[in-house]
Amino acid sequence: AQMEFDPIYGRMPSMCHVYGDVFVIAYSTVAGQGKAITVTISPAGVIGPIITTYLYEPGDRSMYPQIRHVDGTTYCIWYTGPGSVGWVSTIKISNDGTIGPLINWAMFDATYAVNPCPRHVSGTVWACAYQTGSIFGPGRLVTRTISPAGAIGAQIDTHDFDPVQAYRPDLFHVSGTIYGIAYRGPGIDGWLRTIPISPLGHIGAEVDQLEFDPVQGDYCSVA
Predict the structure, then answer these.
(1) pLDDT of 186-219, one tens digit each?
(2) CA angle, residues 195, 201, 204, in degrees to nearest 5
(3) Residue 89 to residue 155: CA distance in whole angstroms
(4) Between the CA of residue 89 and those of 60, 99, 103, 115, 145, what are the distances in Å?
């Protein structure tokens, strides 16, 4: 089955399971707004009609959204907002696919943040890897809290894992307090780094690194 969820423009979609056969898609519209829609996908693969649409960012420059489940009916969306500033918003999505209201929002980088990759750490602690400075800028990792009700806490820690370039970083959990970041680094080479993040959100010193492709390592994804 297939479905055209936006007949005009549906850029940079990010998808998350909600409940049962309900899924949510966050993406950027033709006007650059941040939109979320819910649809159903049956176990047999049948795609239902759009349930709800919701503008979580009405500005004209919302890009690179990444939506994640927090707890219950609370979800978070990390994205690049107007002025290329990094934002995280929390939103309610009911089990039946009804979206809204927006609960809370906060800047995680007030200067520049693109291609965010968030990951739950422990309890209310979340981490996010992204590019800062410019579209091909350094790689940065930040931690902060998001409560089950959607309240966003202050930044806990910050660490620049690559001072030169980290294009489209993919942050993933390895084991215990160890996390990995795969990305395209300087010279478009493929890089992998490991770093500890404590359950309280404190980022430790780098454990190890590997240049896994000395020619080109683009659009990294680690399962």
Answers:
(1) 999 999 999 999 999 999 999 999 999 999 999 9
(2) 30
(3) 14
(4) 16, 13, 7, 15, 12
pLDDT at 80: 96
Q: Is the dihedral of CA 71, 128, 109, 206 positive or negative?
A: positive
Structure tokens at 144: 């902060």
CA 31 to chain centre: 21
Structure tokens at 23: 């899924």
CATH of 1-111, one of 1.10.10, 2.40.160, 3.40.630, 2.40.128: 2.40.128
135, pLDDT greater than 90: no
Q: Where are the domains of the chain?
A: 1-111, 112-223
> No. of H helices and E strands in the chain?
0, 16
Give the CATH number of domain 112-223; options: 1.10.10, 2.40.128, 3.40.140, 3.30.70. 2.40.128
Pairing of strands 114-122, 125-131: antiparallel
pTM of the predicted structure, to 2 decimals: 0.96
